[in-house]
Design goal:
heterodimer; A: Aspartate Aminotransferase, domain 1; Aspartate Aminotransferase, domain 2; 7-stranded mixed β-sheet; 3-stranded antiparallel β-sheet; 13 helices; 12 strands; globular; B: alpha/beta; about 25% helix
């Protein structure tokens, strides 16, 4: 069975060019970048070159890039690091209801330790209102954290407007750009963000790699203690091979962005149109908002998304429902309930996220599988009445 | 033509794993499904009581099921039925205890989750039949065409008592590959298939109360729901109404119980009746526990569409109970009346009464 992978927001394959760039840095060039000698120096050189590539992807100075183990660590380092470094007595922080769990659960942990938190709602299209951000500001507000693109809907948040509001209010601003990087142009100066999280494995670099942009002048407390690596912000011997991979992936993402975004938008739009045409009682979530090019969130009424996802997988089409929990079972999506979907509709939703290797032919094959599977599930559903043509 | 796709409900234990191995070995296309039924992060105070690795839907069990699927090489999924399980099993379980009954959640889970939601999902995935590791047998009657439920070949493992609620539609789509096997034969088959769980010990407790401490589960659940305990401590009386002590909340007791009553009578006293209306526990002598008759409600008939007149049968009034000869009569409201040949000790409301003739399960219902 020739399988189809439409789940690139979960993870991407390592690009062959990325892998090739990494390979020398395991056995051949194995030096510790902190070492004085030539072995160390060559690793240091490669890491700094990678730092430059990652900086260019987000429009920052190379010195403001901190390498981490991934998006989750970057989010934690930004939020916990900033709050812990603040000496203010009362602390208030703001985020949205549709953040990734790496941000939401970090906010909840801080809330449990006495920090005051505002969770902003979003509209039906999955976008937060900048005015709501402004109105939630308080004199003791320390940080605003709003994701750049939502992982389930693909909706792009008004980061520039919020950045301006944060700057005027003199409040730090973090954005989780894990799902935006490589899909939309990013310029931390224009957006006025102070902290920005990136993940390697969403941009064709290996899992276990990531970065945090920390604007110079922003003080963050490291999460773990050790040596003076990454300018005292992230101790531990640098993962040279991973960092080189992330650097090459950032370079490729930036180079491919305009052409690839247009190609994926065409694939995605054709897929959405065809599904809406061929499968009754469906809707695209967040369709009225500006979205990244690769993400389609589709609600299939009268269907359990969990069954649909598994039935499609058995036919070789990989996509996803909500976030998976530790056992691998599916939990209802907090994002879809936040945009006002009823629990049954939220459970009947699937995310298709396209990527670099996907072809138009794969979209055709997926479209040949999907309507029949949905129809079969609906025939077994006690709730579904087949639509009758009105004469 | 491609062989039939069959779904296997996998708990991570040796029985359901062996079912998967047997079907896979026969050349069936198998899809393994493990139900996530209860979130152990809820009620952590109760989960903490349980011995390690004996938790419902524990990650260890899911891991074991997944390893079996990987070892044999068929697709495997963990599916979330927490919502359905809470509605169909956990909430009625708590309500039963508060109403003075002693429920059997496994039977409800079989009727309303496993052979309902999971069976429907199996069909959604293209598997027309669902196989489980239950020890029982299903046979189609040659002349009536009805599906019959029979006791397992291995009497020590027979689980037909928990399956009395299965309807004809459910039985038609269910497969019990272990019904003809003894536990030893199952272990041997597991070893022969080199299953990683071949030597895994049995689990006995109710899955979502792994510590066996129902009272603390009920208290924690009600606290989580914000309702608190409706039944506070109250009086323990004799059948004549004489107050002999105080009870700690009716949900902590079951009919026939002797230990833990905290009574200082000269002779052993047993719980005869749980009376939630007056918040009373009625106790008495062991001899008073005998009952020669009981009412059974919500009866599901397997052997025939309905009971037309009295029949002689053997009745089981709890899982570990010797069969008792009795006469079963139709009662109003679709229930049945059971008249035992000899009085039975501790006929407990909330337990199931299951009717047998020989190996065949005629039907069963809930003791009122």
């Amino acid at each position: 069975m020739q399988r189809i992978y439409f789940d690139h927001n979960a993870t991407t394959p390592v690009d062959r060019e990325v892998l090739a760039a990494m390979l020398p840095w395991f056995s051949e060039k194995f030096g510790n970048a902190s070492s004085i000698h030539s072995f160390g120096q060559e690793a240091r050189g490669a890491i700094e070159q990678a730092r430059g590539h990652v900086a260019r992807l987000v429009g920052s100075r190379p010195a403001d890039i901190v390498f981490t183990s991934g998006g989750t660590e970057s989010d934690n380092l930004a939020i916990l690091g900033l709050v812990r470094a603040s000496r203010a007595e009362r602390k208030h922080i703001i985020t949205t209801a549709i953040e990734h769990s790496a941000v939401l659960n970090t906010f909840q942990a801080l809330e449990a330790s006495g920090v005051e938190v505002t969770y902003l709602p979003v509209g039906r299209e999955g976008v937060v209102d900048p005015e709501a951000v402004r109105q939630s500001l308080r004199p003791d507000t320390l940080l605003i954290s709003v994701m750049m693109a939502n992982n389930e809907l693909g909706t792009i948040q008004p980061i520039e407007e919020i950045g301006r509001i944060a700057e005027q209010a003199d409040v730090w601003f973090h954005t989780d750009a894990v799902q935006a990087a490589g899909k939309v142009p990013i310029d931390v100066s224009a957006l006025r963000v102070d902290l920005l999280s990136l993940s390697g494995h969403k941009i064709y670099a290996p899992k276990g790699t990531g970065a945090l942009f920390v604007r110079s002048g922003v003080r963050i407390e490291p999460l773990v203690h050790g040596g003076h690596h990454e300018r005292d912000r992230r101790p531990g011997t640098e993962n040279a091979a991973g960092i080189v991979g992330l650097g090459r992936a950032a370079e490729l993402a930036l180079a491919k962005l305009p052409v690839e975004a247009a190609r994926l938008a065409a694939l995605r739009d054709r897929f959405e149109r065809a599904v809406l045409e061929r499968v009754p009682a469906t809707r695209v979530n967040g369709a009225g908002a500006v979205r990244v090019a690769n993400t389609a969130s589709i609600t299939f009424s009268y269907v359990e998304g969990e069954s649909l996802e598994i039935a499609l997988d058995l036919k070789g089409l990989a996509c996803s429902t909500g976030a998976a929990c530790s056992s691998g079972a599916i939990e209802p999506s907090h994002v879809l309930t936040a945009i006002g979907l009823e629990p049954a509709e939220a459970r009947g939703s699937l995310r298709f996220s396209f990527g670099r290797a996907n072809t138009s032919e794969e979209v055709d094959r997926a479209l040949a599988i999907l309507p029949g599977v949905v129809e079969h599930l609906r025939e077994l559903s006690p709730l579904y009445k087949k639509p009758v043509a009105i004469l | 033509m491609e062989s039939e796709l069959i779904a296997v409900a996998m708990s991570g234990g040796v029985d359901s794993s062996t079912v998967a191995a047997l079907l896979h070995g026969q050349g069936s296309r198998v899809v393994g499904l493990t139900m996530q039924l209860w979130n152990q992060r809820r009620l952590p105070e109760v989960a903490g009581d349980a011995p390690r690795g004996h938790r419902c839907c524990s990650l260890d069990d899911v891991y074991d099921a997944r390893r079996v699927a990987e070892h044999l090489g068929f697709p495997f999924y963990v599916v979330n039925f927490e919502r359905q399980f809470e509605d169909a099993v956990v909430r009625p379980f708590v309500a039963d205890y508060l109403a003075g009954r002693t429920p059997i959640p496994c039977a409800r889970c079989n009727s309303f989750v496993k052979f309902d939601d999971l069976l429907r999902m199996s069909r959604e995935l293209g598997a027309e039949r669902l196989a489980t590791g239950h020890y029982a047998r299903i046979r189609r009657h040659p002349s009536t065409g009805r599906y019959e439920l029979l006791r397992a070949r291995d009497p020590a493992k027979d689980q037909s008592y928990f399956l009395f609620g299965l309807t004809q539609k459910q039985l038609a789509r269910t497969v019990f590959p272990l019904g003809e096997m003894t536990k030893n034969e199952v272990r041997e088959a597991a070893r022969a298939a080199e299953l990683p769980v071949a030597e895994k010990p049995e689990s006995q407790e109710i899955c979502f109360v792994p510590s066996g401490n129902y009272a603390s589960f009920i208290e924690a659940y009600l606290a989580e729901q914000g309702t608190g305990l409706p039944a506070a401590p109250g009086e323990i009386t004799t059948a004549d109404g004489e107050i002999v002590g105080r009870h700690q909340g009716l949900h902590r007791y079951t009919v026939g119980q002797r230990r833990g009553l905290g009574l200082a009578a000269g002779h052993p006293l047993y719980v005869l009746e749980i009376d939630p209306e007056r918040n009373r526990l009625v106790v008495g002598e062991n001899a008073a526990l005998g009952c020669d008759c009981c009412e059974v409600r919500d009866v599901n008939w397997i052997a025939w569409p309905s009971l037309e007149g009295p029949v002689e049968a053997e009745v089981k009034i709890r899982h570990r109970h010797a069969l008792a000869r009795a006469l079963i009569e139709p009662a109003s409201s679709g229930g049945a009346r059971v008249r035992f040949e000899t009085p039975q000790r501790a006929v407990t409301p909330g337990q199931a009464a299951v009717f047998y003739q020989g190996d065949s399960v005629l039907g069963g219902g809930w003791i009122a």
